[in-house]
Specification:
heterodimer; A: 157 residues; alpha+beta; Glutaredoxin; 2 domains; four-stranded mixed β-sheet; B: 415 residues; alpha/beta; Rossmann fold; Ubiquitin-like (UB roll); de novo design (two linked rop proteins); 3 domains; five-stranded mixed β-sheet; 9 strands; 13% strand; globular
Chain lengths: 157, 415
């Protein structure tokens, strides 16, 4: 197994594993730690997580393939999620997606060749009073306009 | 809160710090209750307040707690449902952002009433920043001795953990939430047994929505009678109504349970957006059947909306203006449920997928004359035929669109 995390991340993993009555409950939390550090969940991390929690690797794969926020492949440095559900649609989210596709030169679901941006369309982000809304990594934006997006993209190094 | 009425959201948006909460009288209700009242008295008081669940099903919180067997020393758990995935719903975000300590104080009171020593807050993965705010608030409270061992010197121990989801609507369903918390796919469980007897790690478990738990301290701060007076006799307190869509002032409005829908839209959300008239309204999150403009005088409480053949659900109000084609709305609704079906039950997995395909065909101008009947047939085939309420949740809005806006949809199809 050729998988390792930084010392700080390993310390966090140990805390997480300890804090549940049954350690397999720490699966989602430790996968979040892995993804934060690596940007995605590498194949080797699946076996590592299974060994850490004493569960079969297939259970890790089942979980990985179920939850939309967990990625099995690298994404851009900036992960842009644009809400396409009803309130954001009513506020013009389709135009926001088109604008981002044009600005980044990719389609929704793709990553820019320089590895900087990944664009995704997602279901409700729970920020409907700021529609149309989107998230860039952990930060919320909304209501967004074409101009605002241009400004934000310019500020992202 | 300073004006002596039970209100959840503080007026000051920077009110999330412990000092601010303490200056509003925070944690006093928990302190007094743990030192002076027996758990059974706490449960009785909550029952008297007629606090009904704010997540969607609307069960009385007091009786949900009472289902937990009060025997033996076996562990019991509280799971606070902060998954908030229902489209058009953003009220729990407001509570956790602006008043996290109110939720934490509610967790202390609920746990004490049921004899629980470990509580989990299951929060949707996208709310990472809010999860951090909760962690900070828990840290502040723990430092003061409000969590941990021997809280307030009462001899009662309690720990609370924040657990992040990872992007899945179905995990807001309570048994899917338990599966997810245990480290598996969010696949709903067959009931019975109900979580109150066999829940998290097979132990008795209470699962309540964030807003439900956040109401509990208010019952003890102001008394059950004042709490009931703030709402309706059989449905006490306020509701956080989230209004979004084609209105002038989208936002969260905290108003008495039973406030008429039209009043919320017109007086609080500023009425329909510039240059539009209202065409349709979803009163309680996307799973609630759509209402037509002439149906908006309904009071926003569980029973009134059930009589109107819709539901209060999460009280997320979505207003659709007359510029929006219903074929587009149908497409978005259908796409959402097809995307979020967990795939476990065939009627939901297949039904939502077929409805999505037909809705997309109608939206693309390629609808066939029998399409609405086909959608109706498929939706009827999901209703009541799945392990969890998602089959119903996916069928209700679709059926209401086809039934109430059939004329417009038929015109779209024949064009």
């Amino acid at each position: 197994m050729s998988f390792s995390l930084s010392a700080a991340a390993m310390k966090r993993v140990e805390e997480l594993v300890r804090r549940y009555p049954k350690k397999e409950a720490a699966l989602l939390p430790i996968l979040h730690v892995v993804q934060r550090e690596k940007g995605f969940i590498p194949r080797e991390a699946e076996d590592w997580a299974a060994a850490t929690l004493g569960i079969p690797p297939i259970l890790v794969r089942e979980v990985l393939s179920f939850y939309s926020l967990l990625r099995r492949a690298p994404a851009g440095k900036y992960f842009i999620q644009v809400c396409r559900n009803i309130s954001c649609f009513l506020a013009g989210s389709e135009d926001i997606v088109k604008h981002l596709e044009a600005r980044l030169g990719i389609r929704a679901g793709e990553t820019t060749p320089d590895g900087k941006f990944t664009l995704a369309t997602v279901e409700c982000l729970g920020n409907c009073d700021h529609s149309p809304c989107l998230m860039i990594n952990d930060d919320d934006y909304g209501p967004v306009t074409r101009d605002m997006i241009d400004g934000v993209l310019k500020g992202l190094a | 809160m300073s004006d002596g009425k039970p209100v959840i959201l503080p007026a000051d948006e920077n009110s999330f710090r412990l000092e601010a909460y303490l200056s509003r009288g925070g944690y006093e209700a928990a302190r007094k209750t743990l030192l002076e009242k027996k758990p059974q008295e706490v449960m009785d008081e909550v029952k008297k307040a007629n606090l009904r669940g704010r997540g969607g099903a609307g069960l009385p919180a007091g009786s949900k707690w009472a289902f937990v067997p009060q025997t033996g020393d076996q562990p019991k758990y509280l799971c606070v449902n902060a998954d908030e995935g229902e489209p058009g719903t953003f009220k729990d975000r407001a509570i956790m952002t602006r008043d996290p300590h109110l939720l934490l104080e509610g967790i202390i009171l609920a746990s004490y009433a049921v004899g629980i020593h470990t509580a989990f807050i299951y929060i949707r993965g996208e709310y990472e920043a809010i999860a951090r705010r909760l962690e900070d608030a828990i840290g502040e409270a723990r430092e003061k001795g409000f969590f941990g061992r021997n809280i307030f010197g009462s001899g009662f121990d309690l720990d609370v953990l924040v657990h992040r989801g990872a992007g899945s609507y179905i995990c807001g369903e309570e048994t899917a939430l338990l599966e997810s918390l245990e480290g598996r796919r969010g696949w709903p469980r067959l009931r019975p047994p109900f979580p109150a007897s066999v829940g998290l790690f097979r132990a008795p478990t209470v699962i309540n929505n964030v807003e439900t738990i956040a109401n509990v301290p208010l019952i003890f701060r102001f008394g059950a009678a004042a709490f009931v007076a703030a709402g309706l006799p059989r449905d006490g307190g306020t509701r956080l109504f989230g209004v979004s869509g084609a209105v002038r002032r989208p936002g969260v409005y905290e108003l008495p349970v039973g406030t008429p829908l039209r009043k919320i839209i017109e007086d609080w959300a500023g009425g329909p957006a510039e240059g539009q008239a209202i065409k349709a309204v979803v009163p309680g999150g996307l799973s609630a059947p759509f209402l037509r403009p002439e149906e908006l005088d309904v009071p926003m409480d569980y029973e009134s909306l059930a009589r109107a053949k819709s539901m209060l659900g999460s009280a997320g109000i979505i207003v659709i203006g007359d510029r929006t084609p219903m074929s587009e709305v149908l497409k978005i609704v259908a796409r959402f449920y097809a995307h979020e079906s967990c795939g476990q039950c065939t009627p939901c997995r297949i039904g939502t997928t077929w409805i999505r395909k037909i809705a997309e065909r109608i939206g693309a101008g390629e609808g066939a004359p029998g399409d609405l009947d086909l959608i109706r047939h498929l939706a009827e085939g999901m209703k009541g035929k799945t392990l969890c309420p998602m089959g119903d949740a996916a069928a209700f809005p679709v059926l209401s669109i086809v039934d109430k806006f059939g004329k417009e949809l038929r015109e779209t199809i024949s064009r």
